[in-house]
Design brief:
Number of strands: 14
Structural class: alpha+beta
Shape: globular
Number of helices: 2
Distance between the termini: 41 Å
Helix content: 10-25%
Largest sheet: 4 strands, antiparallel
Order of helices and strands: HHEEEEEEEEEEEEEE
Number of domains: 1
């Protein structure tokens, strides 16, 4: 594998760091990835001079020999005129080949019991190309190579809808945030704690 640009080098380092982190915080993560034999992530880079949000979805097939290879699976190879790519949301709950989250970093990620990949929030671009902290939830199916927008808002910097403590509700969702602590339990439930973003009002938490 050849790395041609500094931006690609940053992206690859983020993948490796994410893999190492997930392997230590979620014992099943690495074994699931090995079983799937692929790693698909939506990544963004963050430059010191400006906030860049590129969308790079890649697949990596690990191999004990020297034949391991990366495959570009989707998204854009360029940042666009605004320095980032907006999300293409489609219809909530409906996978489609044209759907993809906006460029971002600092998202929470999980792998469910079916091998689907989940992405929540971060810091990046919304459906209109506005930079901020989204609160959108995405599901990626590696078998079909399709994203589905599953919840939250398509606009950045939205406060959370908390509802009643301890009571699930379809209208509940965390506010826009990045750099949250996240993990999954033995029942396949996703958990999220804290982060830098918005609570139930437009006040940073």
């Amino acid at each position: 594998m050849r790395v041609r640009t500094l931006r690609e080098m940053k992206s690859l380092s983020l993948i490796l760091c994410s893999l190492r982190r997930d392997a230590s915080s979620e014992r099943a993560s690495f074994s699931r990835l090995a079983t799937l034999c692929c790693l698909l992530l939506t990544l963004a880079t963050h430059a010191q001079s400006q906030d860049d949000g590129g969308v790079f979805t890649w697949s990596y097939v690990p191999n004990a020999s020297d034949t391991s290879q990366w495959t570009w699976m989707g998204g854009s190879a360029t940042l666009g005129n605004t320095g980032g790519r907006p999300g293409i949301y489609g219809t909530m709950g409906t996978p489609a080949t044209g759907n993809i989250p906006g460029g971002r970093y600092g998202s929470a990620t999980w792998i469910d019991n079916s091998g689907h990949l989940w992405l929540f929030a971060g810091c990046g671009y919304d459906v209109n190309g506005v930079w901020g902290e989204p609160c959108d939830l995405w599901e990626f199916n590696p078998a079909t190579n399709e994203w589905a927008w599953m919840g939250g808002s398509s606009s950045v910097d939205q406060p959370g809808a908390y509802g009643t403590l301890g009571t699930p509700d379809v209208g509940n969702f965390p506010g826009g945030r990045n750099s949250s602590v996240h993990w999954s339990d033995n029942n396949g439930n996703f958990w999220l704690f804290g982060g830098n973003g918005f609570a139930a009002s437009y006040a940073s938490q």
